Every structure is written in structure tokens, then in C-alpha cells.
Amino acid sequence: MDNGVFFMRKNKTFTIIELLVTVAIITILAQLLIPALAIAKKKAREIKCMSNMKQTNSSINLYSEDFGFFPYGNSTGIDFSHSIKAYLWPFSSESSSILECGEALHSTDGTVWISYAVHPVILPDFIERPTQSRFWKAGEIKRLSDTIIILEACQKINANCYPTFKSIPGVFISGVEKDKDNFIVGDFKKHDQDGVNVNEGWPRFRHIYQRANSAFADGHAANVKMNSMTEGNVKTNY
Predict the structure, then answer these.
(1) Which of 42, 57, 99, 159 is deepest in the core (most CB within 10 A)?
(2) 190-202 per-position pLDDT tens digit
(3) If 0-12 CB within 10 Å is exposed, 13-18 middle and 19+ buried, where does residue 1 land?
(4) How many whole angstroms separate alpha carbon 83 and alpha carbon 96?
(5) Which residues contact 197 (CB under 8 A, 6 or more apart)?
């Protein structure tokens, strides 16, 4: 007390209420930011996966330019990755990480699993279609910008994913012009899981909003949403 005036010392510590309010605000902000960060990370992996797919597609196209036809998709004990490994430089191996999508299931032994499947007719599947397969030339594809060459696919439990589209309704059917816009009838959700043998060769919608990266015969890549695949994307006889 000085000259009748009282001076009160300010309390510089937080009260319990102030502390609880601060913690609540931080918690709310974290709940808002963490999902956004998770989506951003998932989107980054999707972009990386798309880049790998485009490089794989470029390697396939380079092979077709050099040899005059597309490589085989699948044969006894080998698949398309063996044909294009020379074009994956500086990753000159069929175990190149370019053939892998970061969102895909990884093998327990640390080896790289091929995360993609190719068109079973254009990149022929000599196992699934032994009497019908032949080597295709790029000029034989009539709708380059619509025809999917590479698509993300499911993996089996203890081996690489099946290297060509398989068991998808519409894939092995020769279409006519009026059918090309029909949606493929298939229970994609039932097969949208890695590490299940019955899902081999089916599309794998790994990315946000249930989309699968796809590379087309003209070289471009895009997302395909679940249940939006059309017969025109997989048939060739138009």
C-alpha cells in the first residue's frame, strides 16, 4: 500500500479452465489437420504410382517401336516385365521399383511385386489364351486414347499379381461399335483387395475416391473410378 493506493500482483499462471480450453482447441485443430495430411500423403503416393505407370507404359511403347509389335503379357514362367527391363534404365531389371505402386501390398521378404496388369489381348496372354494369342502392332489399335494398356491390379498372397487382366466381364469379348460405351458389369468392390488369390488380375482401386491409375495406348495416363470402366476401354474390335 502506497498513499492509499493498492497494487495487486498479476497472476502469470494459467488457470485450469484456460488450460482445458487450450487443450481442447489443439485437439480440434489436430482432428482437422491429421486427416488432411493423411489424404495429402496418399495423394503423393498416387502421383508417384502414376509416374511409375507412365514410365512402364513408355517402356512398352519403346519396345513396340523397336520390334514392330507389343511384347507378350504372360507366358510360361515369365511376363511383360522381362521384355521391357532393358527400357527401364537405370533400373534395368524386372524387379525395378518402377513396376511397383507404393499403395500396393508389399511382400514379406522385401522383394518388389509387380503392381500392374496389362491388356491380355494387345499384350497377349499365352497362358490364358494359348490358341487365340498373337503379337499385336500399335497400328492395329483403333481407339488409342480409349484403350487401357496397363491397369492397377490385385496381388496374390504369396506371388506377384497376375500380369494380365483376368476374369473381368467384357475383357475377352470382341465388341461392336454400339457396345463400346457400356459399363463393364462386375462386382469390383468384391475384388478390391490385395493379397487374395481369387482377386488376381482384377482392377485394384487403391487410391482416394476409389480410383485406379490407368495408362492408355496413346501414352497418356488417368484415374479410372470404380464401376466407371467401359467395354470400350478393354475391347479392341471397334
Answers:
(1) 99
(2) 888 888 888 888 8
(3) exposed
(4) 13
(5) 156, 157
